[in-house]
Every structure is written in structure tokens, then in C-alpha cells.
Amino acid sequence: MTLEAHPIFSRRKVVFLLASLCCLLWGSSYPAIKSGYALFAIAPTDIAAKMVFAGYRFAFGGLVLLVMAAFSNRALFAEGVRNWRGIVVLGLTQTSIHYVFFYIGLAYTTGVKASVINSTTIFFSVWMAHLMYRNDRLTSTKIVGCVIGFIGVMVVNFNHRLLDLNFTLLGEGFVVIAAFIQAAAMIYGKKISQKMNPMVMTGYQLAIGGTVLLVGGYVLGGTLGTVTAASSALLFYLVLLSSAALSLWALLLKYNRVGLVSVFNFQVPIFGAILSAIFLGESILEWKNIAALALVCSGIWLVTKDNSAAAPAPAQKAGGA
Length: 321
What we know:
disordered C terminus
């Protein structure tokens, strides 16, 4: 019996559980990356070193997925050769170019503003899905749900720095570009996943994108400072986090509408704020955290309710492609 066939599980519940798990993992990357910068002695403005750090994370994450796929008897070479153009494009956009723009933008703006602006990925995703898929149209309920979720992200990040309306191309502009690239790559990845197994696709794109980041970072003079057992263990966690979350996300996108899945991304900064409070000693029981969580959950409920009420998508074969 498959998970969805179990009487206590509906398709909507499965999507909710798996998407929330992905967002929890991505949310945990906020305190993990901050701790990694400290453990590897990476300066806040050292973009090249950050590229090296991210490069190791994603390149090894891709290798982990490819090894797992090989043990699952997937035809790695055949699938890679057959879809090599799409895999390379996805690796360069979703991993390499996206993170270069994001890291540069983050160096020229505040973390608060970057977190809020990066949430526009959801709006870009829903809009692109509306243009590309007949069964994933924008509705008034979906728009209201996205707006409520975005307000929740603003609330959890609210302080005086958020009221600073200063906008620069290298700062806020690059974060917007990164969000657009990520959304476009998400739509493109859904298309590629129809032709190959999501785990294999994600493994190749992480390995390619991570390698480009790694080489680029070293060429620009980046390096990891202190390598210890603690810093290595943290990097290992980030590797597993990336491989697990991105492969699950690709699987969700393969069998579900983009608008249904992408809205769960509003949970990432909420989980990030809560986990940062726990592991970095920040205050967790603030009114804004509770209010933000309520808003984000309300927005997600509206969008998923709207999708479940819509006409079902054509039936697709279950299991890996």
C-alpha cells in the first residue's frame, strides 16, 4: 500500500507533511550557515569564501544523491546523457547563478530585508505557473493567501531596518534577481523532472552547480579558514540537508501544481527564526513570531484549499520516472 493509499493520508496531507519537512530543513540552514561562517572563520563580506563553503555543500550533496540513486539501480549515465542540456542549465541557474546573486546581494543589504525580498520567489513561481500551466491558474483566493503569507514573513523580520526604503542594484536588486532565477529554475526543474527521476536530476544539478561555485570561489581567492571536527560535522549536516530537501522538493513538484507546492516556502523564514532563536540564543517567545506563524499558516491554508477545490490534474503514474 502506498502512502497516499493509506486511509489516514490524503494527497493534500502528504504534500503538507513533505513540503513542511523540506521547509524545516531549509529553515535549519539559517543558524547552521551562520555557525559555519564562525567555525570556518569566514568574514561577513568574504563572498569568495562563502562560494567555496556553498560549493562544498552542494557538490557533496549532489554526490550523495547520485550514490543513493546508483544503489537504487537507477541508470545514472543513461539518464544524464539523455537530459544533459536540461541538467546543466538547471545546475547553473538553480545552484550557481542563483547563489552568486544572493550572496552578493546579501553583502550589500541587511539580512532582514534579504529574507523578506527573497520571499518574492513564491510570487514569481505562482505567476510563472499561471502563464505556463492551464491547471495552475491564479485565483483571488490564491492571491490573498500569498499576500497573507508574505505579510507573515514581513512580521517575523520586522524591526527598524525593514523600514529603511533604500534600494540599490547590488543589494536589494540582486536579491530580487536571485528570487526570480530561483522561481524560473523551479518551473524549469518541474519540466525536466517529467523526463527523469527527481533524485537523479537533483543529484546532477547540485553536483554541477556546486562544482562551479567551488571553482569560482577558489579562483576569486576564497578559502575555508579553520577546519575542525565541529566545522566538518556542520558541513556534513548541510550536505545531507541539501540533498534530502531538494530531492523531496523536486519530487513534490513533479506530481503537484507549482502553485500548491511553492507557497509552503513561506514557512522557511518562520522555521529559520524559531530555530535561530533556539540554537543561537535569540528570543523565541516574541509576539511577532507567533503572529507571523499564524499568518503564514493561514496563507498556506487558503492556497492549498483553493488548489484542492480546483479540477484535479491528469492522473500520473506513481513512483520514480
